[in-house]
Amino acid sequence: MMTTFETIAKLIAETKDMDPSEVKPEMTFADLGLDSLDVAELVMNMEDELGVTIEISPELKTVQDVVALVEAQKK
Amino acid sequence: MITSIITEALGITYPIFQGGMAWISEAQLAAAVSNAGGLGIISAMNLDADYLRGQIKKCRELTDKPFGVNVMLMSPHVKDVARVCAEEKPAVVTTGAGLPTAYMKDWIQAGIKVIPVVPSTAVARLVERAGAFAVIAEGGESGGHVGDLSTMVLVPQVVDAVKIPVLAAGGIADGRGVAAAYMLGAVGVQCGTAFLCATECAAHDHYKQKVVAAKDIDTVVTGKRLNHAVRSLRSPFTRRYIDKEYDPATSGEELENLGIGALRKAAVEGDLEAGCFLAGQAAALVKCVQPASKIIEDMFVEAEALLKGAAAWVK
Lengths: 75, 315
Prior knowledge:
heterodimer; A: 75 residues; Non-ribosomal Peptide Synthetase Peptidyl Carrier Protein, Chain A; 0% strand; B: alpha/beta; TIM Barrel; five-stranded parallel beta sheet; 14 helices; 12 strands
């Protein structure tokens, strides 16, 4: 079973045609070259795959922020 | 009459919005469109809160019909402008160039119907969840900030992705476009370029003439390298810009600076040399300058005839 981070890294990698190993927890959306359209796409994919609800907010900046948000909902 | 939930809920006669165009969608044009039975929209563009407040006040003096405000989310004044919307309570707020979810709660609480422009199904789903009344699915045929998908493929997918009403935009400037939008599942349309050539529009005559003269292949997309693609009419400005955009020696910052003020030069000064004349591919369908009321009436007379006659195709 994949960890939350691994699942998210895989989804980000799919959005940007990257290798999942290139995605690091400390990276921001900007670092990953994700614009608002990509972020919307990613959030919807994560919701579909992980069965969570993700509110986009200014505090949501890095991959780790997203992982934390998802983990909190899974508990 | 072509009615829909859009006309009924907003109290307008025709299910047509006039797009929010920076330096073009001023109070005078918005009021003319609203008085003609559509929904006029003031563009908050990248100016400050005082500008928007002034425009809303002026629009209220010119019409007692509902109208909207378009908030451009990339504006440096977006927070102030969002607050002015919540205070002034126009009937509708439309948004463009980004995700409006952070501001939607305040607007909805103020009783405003929020109708974001969306370039993808994911954005449509996100704003639906945040309480949007409807969405405007805008294809890349449109002028100004553009997404990649065309109207023909975007609209039916957005219709499938959300339960709220969908308006179609991008490439619509006559009754055929309106009828097609309904066939794709939309219940209304938004037109920008068509209204740019309204008599009541304050844009410089050179701008209107350029739109009227435009042929099918006369628009270009610039700025993809900066991640904000913009469609405009071919001009000396776009030729110079494209040369720079594809020159690796040009820095992103240099490219960014090149674009500053170019739209104002087009819309306000009519500067054919230095201006950037934003327009959609539908510019080629716009044949003359005429009052907003005539633009709308012509469009819907044609659309009605087409939709009524559509059954003839089925044997």
